[in-house]
Design brief:
The protein is an alpha/beta fold. The protein has helices at about 5-15, 25-35, 45-50, 60-75, 95-105, 120-130, 145, 155-175, 185-195, 215-220, 240-250, and strands at about 20-25, 40-45, 80-85, 110-115, 135-140, 175-180, 200, 210-215. The chain is about 40% helix and about 15% strand. It binds 3-methyl-2-oxobutanoic acid. 3-methyl-2-oxobutanoic acid binds near residues 23, 42, 84 and 179.
Protein backbone atom coordinates (compact mmCIF):
# COMPACT_ATOMS: atom_id res chain seq x y z
CA UNK A 1 0.00 0.00 0.00
CA UNK A 2 1.66 3.22 -1.16
CA UNK A 3 1.04 6.02 1.34
CA UNK A 4 0.25 9.53 0.13
CA UNK A 5 2.45 12.41 1.24
CA UNK A 6 2.74 16.05 0.28
CA UNK A 7 5.47 14.96 -2.20
CA UNK A 8 2.91 12.71 -3.93
CA UNK A 9 0.51 15.66 -4.32
CA UNK A 10 3.28 17.98 -5.55
CA UNK A 11 4.24 15.40 -8.18
CA UNK A 12 0.59 15.04 -9.21
CA UNK A 13 0.30 18.81 -9.69
CA UNK A 14 3.53 18.78 -11.69
CA UNK A 15 2.11 16.04 -13.95
CA UNK A 16 -1.31 17.69 -14.27
CA UNK A 17 -3.01 14.81 -12.44
CA UNK A 18 -6.05 15.66 -10.32
CA UNK A 19 -6.50 14.25 -6.81
CA UNK A 20 -9.50 13.66 -4.56
CA UNK A 21 -10.11 14.77 -0.98
CA UNK A 22 -13.02 13.76 1.28
CA UNK A 23 -13.92 14.76 4.78
CA UNK A 24 -13.96 12.00 7.40
CA UNK A 25 -14.95 12.08 11.03
CA UNK A 26 -14.96 8.47 12.23
CA UNK A 27 -13.20 5.08 11.94
CA UNK A 28 -15.75 3.26 9.77
CA UNK A 29 -16.01 5.85 6.98
CA UNK A 30 -12.28 6.41 7.22
CA UNK A 31 -11.70 2.74 6.30
CA UNK A 32 -13.96 3.15 3.24
CA UNK A 33 -12.04 6.24 2.19
CA UNK A 34 -8.77 4.32 2.46
CA UNK A 35 -10.04 1.38 0.41
CA UNK A 36 -11.47 3.74 -2.24
CA UNK A 37 -7.96 5.20 -2.79
CA UNK A 38 -8.94 8.80 -1.99
CA UNK A 39 -5.67 10.69 -1.75
CA UNK A 40 -6.43 13.04 1.18
CA UNK A 41 -8.68 12.61 4.19
CA UNK A 42 -9.76 15.87 5.83
CA UNK A 43 -11.08 15.93 9.38
CA UNK A 44 -13.06 19.10 8.76
CA UNK A 45 -14.55 21.28 11.44
CA UNK A 46 -17.66 20.82 9.27
CA UNK A 47 -18.19 18.07 11.85
CA UNK A 48 -19.89 20.88 13.78
CA UNK A 49 -22.60 20.83 11.09
CA UNK A 50 -22.83 17.22 9.95
CA UNK A 51 -21.97 15.34 13.18
CA UNK A 52 -23.04 17.73 15.94
CA UNK A 53 -26.01 19.42 14.20
CA UNK A 54 -24.79 22.98 14.88
CA UNK A 55 -25.62 25.75 12.43
CA UNK A 56 -21.95 26.75 12.03
CA UNK A 57 -18.44 25.42 12.71
CA UNK A 58 -17.88 27.97 15.48
CA UNK A 59 -18.74 25.73 18.49
CA UNK A 60 -16.15 23.05 17.54
CA UNK A 61 -13.26 22.68 20.03
CA UNK A 62 -9.64 21.51 19.79
CA UNK A 63 -10.42 18.46 21.96
CA UNK A 64 -13.24 17.47 19.60
CA UNK A 65 -10.94 17.85 16.57
CA UNK A 66 -8.32 15.69 18.31
CA UNK A 67 -10.93 13.03 19.21
CA UNK A 68 -12.16 12.73 15.60
CA UNK A 69 -8.64 12.93 14.16
CA UNK A 70 -7.56 9.94 16.27
CA UNK A 71 -10.60 7.90 15.14
CA UNK A 72 -9.99 8.74 11.46
CA UNK A 73 -6.30 7.92 11.79
CA UNK A 74 -7.11 4.43 13.11
CA UNK A 75 -9.18 3.73 9.97
CA UNK A 76 -6.82 4.98 7.29
CA UNK A 77 -3.06 4.56 7.06
CA UNK A 78 -2.81 5.43 3.37
CA UNK A 79 -4.32 8.86 2.67
CA UNK A 80 -2.65 12.09 3.79
CA UNK A 81 -4.52 13.13 6.94
CA UNK A 82 -5.25 16.85 7.27
CA UNK A 83 -7.21 18.22 10.26
CA UNK A 84 -8.84 21.59 10.75
CA UNK A 85 -7.79 23.89 13.53
CA UNK A 86 -11.12 25.13 14.90
CA UNK A 87 -12.40 28.65 15.56
CA UNK A 88 -10.05 30.80 17.69
CA UNK A 89 -7.53 27.97 18.18
CA UNK A 90 -4.93 29.89 16.13
CA UNK A 91 -5.89 33.47 17.00
CA UNK A 92 -2.41 34.09 18.47
CA UNK A 93 0.91 32.50 17.55
CA UNK A 94 1.22 30.88 20.98
CA UNK A 95 -2.18 29.22 20.97
CA UNK A 96 -1.64 28.16 17.34
CA UNK A 97 1.53 26.26 18.30
CA UNK A 98 -0.01 24.65 21.39
CA UNK A 99 -3.24 23.63 19.65
CA UNK A 100 -1.54 22.41 16.46
CA UNK A 101 0.62 20.17 18.68
CA UNK A 102 -2.51 18.59 20.21
CA UNK A 103 -4.01 17.91 16.77
CA UNK A 104 -0.74 16.55 15.32
CA UNK A 105 -0.27 14.26 18.33
CA UNK A 106 -3.78 12.91 17.74
CA UNK A 107 -2.61 11.72 14.30
CA UNK A 108 -2.89 14.60 11.81
CA UNK A 109 -0.10 15.00 9.27
CA UNK A 110 -1.04 18.60 8.44
CA UNK A 111 -3.29 21.27 9.96
CA UNK A 112 -5.63 23.59 8.05
CA UNK A 113 -6.18 27.24 8.99
CA UNK A 114 -8.73 29.67 7.52
CA UNK A 115 -7.60 33.17 6.54
CA UNK A 116 -5.29 35.33 4.45
CA UNK A 117 -2.28 37.56 4.93
CA UNK A 118 -2.81 38.00 8.70
CA UNK A 119 -1.85 34.32 9.13
CA UNK A 120 1.57 34.61 7.45
CA UNK A 121 3.61 34.75 10.68
CA UNK A 122 1.64 31.84 12.17
CA UNK A 123 2.16 29.73 9.04
CA UNK A 124 5.88 30.53 9.16
CA UNK A 125 6.09 29.62 12.85
CA UNK A 126 4.24 26.31 12.46
CA UNK A 127 6.04 25.15 9.33
CA UNK A 128 9.47 26.13 10.72
CA UNK A 129 8.70 23.81 13.65
CA UNK A 130 7.80 20.90 11.41
CA UNK A 131 4.02 21.28 11.30
CA UNK A 132 2.80 21.32 7.68
CA UNK A 133 0.02 23.82 6.98
CA UNK A 134 -2.88 23.89 4.53
CA UNK A 135 -4.30 27.39 3.99
CA UNK A 136 -8.00 28.02 3.33
CA UNK A 137 -9.14 31.10 1.38
CA UNK A 138 -12.36 32.22 -0.31
CA UNK A 139 -15.42 31.40 1.78
CA UNK A 140 -14.02 30.75 5.25
CA UNK A 141 -16.92 29.31 7.31
CA UNK A 142 -15.40 30.27 10.69
CA UNK A 143 -15.91 33.91 9.60
CA UNK A 144 -19.52 33.41 8.49
CA UNK A 145 -20.83 36.22 10.71
CA UNK A 146 -18.21 38.65 9.42
CA UNK A 147 -18.91 37.63 5.81
CA UNK A 148 -22.67 38.05 6.34
CA UNK A 149 -23.53 34.48 5.28
CA UNK A 150 -22.29 31.60 3.14
CA UNK A 151 -21.71 33.55 -0.07
CA UNK A 152 -19.53 33.19 -3.17
CA UNK A 153 -16.31 35.17 -2.65
CA UNK A 154 -13.86 36.92 -5.02
CA UNK A 155 -16.51 37.93 -7.53
CA UNK A 156 -14.98 41.22 -8.69
CA UNK A 157 -11.49 41.77 -10.08
CA UNK A 158 -10.23 43.59 -6.99
CA UNK A 159 -11.37 40.84 -4.59
CA UNK A 160 -10.01 38.13 -6.88
CA UNK A 161 -6.59 39.82 -7.17
CA UNK A 162 -6.47 40.34 -3.41
CA UNK A 163 -7.24 36.64 -2.77
CA UNK A 164 -4.44 35.53 -5.11
CA UNK A 165 -2.04 38.00 -3.46
CA UNK A 166 -2.86 36.72 0.04
CA UNK A 167 -2.62 33.05 -1.03
CA UNK A 168 0.83 33.77 -2.49
CA UNK A 169 1.88 35.34 0.83
CA UNK A 170 0.80 32.18 2.66
CA UNK A 171 2.71 30.02 0.16
CA UNK A 172 5.78 32.21 0.68
CA UNK A 173 5.35 31.81 4.47
CA UNK A 174 5.56 28.03 4.07
CA UNK A 175 2.04 26.69 3.40
CA UNK A 176 2.11 23.28 1.69
CA UNK A 177 -1.48 23.10 0.40
CA UNK A 178 -4.32 25.57 -0.18
CA UNK A 179 -8.08 25.07 -0.05
CA UNK A 180 -10.22 27.58 -1.96
CA UNK A 181 -13.93 27.54 -1.26
CA UNK A 182 -16.86 29.01 -3.22
CA UNK A 183 -15.29 31.27 -5.81
CA UNK A 184 -15.92 31.73 -9.55
CA UNK A 185 -14.29 28.99 -11.66
CA UNK A 186 -12.01 31.53 -13.33
CA UNK A 187 -10.55 32.43 -9.92
CA UNK A 188 -10.08 28.72 -9.08
CA UNK A 189 -8.10 28.43 -12.35
CA UNK A 190 -6.03 31.55 -11.67
CA UNK A 191 -5.17 30.52 -8.10
CA UNK A 192 -4.06 27.07 -9.23
CA UNK A 193 -1.87 28.62 -11.93
CA UNK A 194 -0.38 31.27 -9.62
CA UNK A 195 0.54 28.93 -6.74
CA UNK A 196 3.28 26.31 -6.91
CA UNK A 197 1.63 24.32 -4.09
CA UNK A 198 -1.40 22.14 -4.89
CA UNK A 199 -4.76 23.95 -4.69
CA UNK A 200 -7.87 22.04 -3.56
CA UNK A 201 -11.21 23.47 -4.64
CA UNK A 202 -14.71 23.18 -3.23
CA UNK A 203 -17.17 25.13 -5.34
CA UNK A 204 -14.18 26.60 -7.21
CA UNK A 205 -14.69 24.98 -10.62
CA UNK A 206 -12.93 22.12 -12.37
CA UNK A 207 -9.53 23.82 -12.80
CA UNK A 208 -8.07 23.31 -9.31
CA UNK A 209 -5.46 20.59 -8.68
CA UNK A 210 -7.68 18.68 -6.25
CA UNK A 211 -11.36 18.61 -5.29
CA UNK A 212 -12.83 18.22 -1.81
CA UNK A 213 -16.39 17.50 -0.72
CA UNK A 214 -18.04 16.95 2.63
CA UNK A 215 -18.73 13.19 2.91
CA UNK A 216 -22.41 13.61 3.88
CA UNK A 217 -22.95 15.97 0.91
CA UNK A 218 -21.49 13.55 -1.65
CA UNK A 219 -23.63 10.75 -0.22
CA UNK A 220 -26.71 12.96 -0.53
CA UNK A 221 -27.58 12.61 3.18
CA UNK A 222 -27.03 16.22 4.25
CA UNK A 223 -30.03 18.35 5.13
CA UNK A 224 -29.39 20.54 2.07
CA UNK A 225 -27.20 19.65 -0.90
CA UNK A 226 -24.96 22.61 -1.83
CA UNK A 227 -24.91 23.59 -5.53
CA UNK A 228 -21.23 22.63 -5.78
CA UNK A 229 -21.79 19.06 -4.53
CA UNK A 230 -23.22 15.95 -6.18
CA UNK A 231 -25.09 12.93 -4.79
CA UNK A 232 -22.77 10.09 -5.87
CA UNK A 233 -24.77 7.47 -3.94
CA UNK A 234 -27.75 7.95 -6.28
CA UNK A 235 -25.83 6.35 -9.13
CA UNK A 236 -24.01 3.70 -7.05
CA UNK A 237 -24.82 0.37 -5.41
CA UNK A 238 -23.04 1.07 -2.13
CA UNK A 239 -21.32 3.76 -0.09
CA UNK A 240 -17.97 2.25 -1.06
CA UNK A 241 -18.87 2.48 -4.78
CA UNK A 242 -20.06 6.09 -4.36
CA UNK A 243 -16.77 7.14 -2.75
CA UNK A 244 -14.81 5.32 -5.47
CA UNK A 245 -16.94 7.04 -8.16
CA UNK A 246 -16.19 10.44 -6.62
CA UNK A 247 -12.43 9.75 -6.77
CA UNK A 248 -12.65 8.51 -10.36
CA UNK A 249 -14.74 11.49 -11.54
CA UNK A 250 -12.32 13.95 -9.92
CA UNK A 251 -9.28 12.23 -11.48
CA UNK A 252 -10.91 12.08 -14.93
CA UNK A 253 -12.03 15.72 -14.71
CA UNK A 254 -15.76 14.94 -15.05
CA UNK A 255 -16.53 16.30 -11.56
CA UNK A 256 -17.22 19.14 -11.01
CA UNK A 257 -19.42 19.79 -14.05
CA UNK A 258 -20.58 23.32 -15.02
CA UNK A 259 -23.76 22.95 -12.91
CA UNK A 260 -21.58 22.52 -9.78
CA UNK A 261 -19.57 25.69 -10.46
CA UNK A 262 -19.98 29.47 -10.05
CA UNK A 263 -19.47 32.08 -12.80
O1 LIG B 1 -14.55 21.81 7.40
C1 LIG B 1 -14.51 21.32 6.27
O2 LIG B 1 -15.03 20.24 5.98
C2 LIG B 1 -13.78 22.06 5.25
C3 LIG B 1 -13.95 21.62 3.81
C4 LIG B 1 -15.32 21.80 3.37
C5 LIG B 1 -12.97 22.27 2.92
O3 LIG B 1 -13.09 22.98 5.54
Amino acid sequence: MKTISISTLNAMKENDEKFAVLTAYDYTFSRLIESSSIEVSLVGDSLGNVIQGCDSTIPVTVDEMAYHTAAVKRGNKRSLLVSDMPFMSYSTEVNALDNAAVIMQAGAQMVKLEGGEWLADTVYLLTERGIPVCGHVGLTPQSVHKLGGYKVQGKDDHAADQMIKEALILEEAGADLMVVECVPSSLGDDLSAALNIPVIGIGAGPGTDGQVLVLQDMLGISQRLPKFSKDFLKESNSIQDAITAFGNEVRSGTFPAPEHSFK
